[in-house]
Write a structure and sequence with these properties.
alpha/beta, Oxidized Rhodanese, domain 1, 6 helices, two-stranded antiparallel ribbon, five-stranded parallel sheet
Length: 162
């Protein structure tokens, strides 16, 4: 009864357009985003730790940038699945059967170069944020994010030019 009342109050307080499309649930997105914030803060890795984790067997280094950006350059060993292509099926095909598999992510905003293929994005819209939220939302809780800003010309980064 209490949950039903809370749900009714939430719907009543939400703008009418927020529920117009049953395939879009903005309130659920807000809830997911709020719940992921603390987890994400604990999952930021300095570059040396990120590299060490990426070298471990079974760890997936996921690049969610566009296919074109990935083809123009990426960190060696990364697998590309653009964020726009995320579905339950596409993620399962790339990640595999283990939802607890460690997944490392990075985005344009992890690079100081600010040129193609990693132009700087607005900080609140950095791809890492959406990628992290989406992966957790799709049921992959073991996501880790590169915390540092690096130069893709630094040999330690392992940048593969397209």
């Amino acid at each position: 009864m209490r949950k039903a009342l809370l749900a009714a109050l939430t719907l009543a307080a939400a703008p009418a357009f927020a529920q117009a499309n049953p395939q879009i649930d903005y309130p659920a997105f807000q809830t997911l985003t709020a719940s992921v914030g603390t987890q994400r803060a604990d999952r930021l890795l300095r570059f040396d730790a990120f590299r060490a984790e990426a070298a471990k067997p079974g760890v997936l280094l996921l690049d969610a940038r566009s296919k074109d950006a990935f083809a123009a350059g990426h960190i060696a060993g990364a697998v590309n699945l653009p964020l726009t292509d995320f579905t339950a099926e596409s993620l399962a095909a790339v990640i595999g059967a283990d939802p607890g598999r460690p997944i490392l992510i990075y985005c344009n905003n992890n690079f100081s170069n600010h040129q193609s293929p990693v132009p700087l994005k607005a900080a609140p819209l950095a791809l890492n944020i959406q990628t992290f939220i989406n992966l957790v939302g799709y049921g992959y809780p073991n996501v880790w994010e590169l915390a540092d800003v690096v130069d893709f010309d630094d040999p330690a980064v392992g940048w593969v030019k397209g």
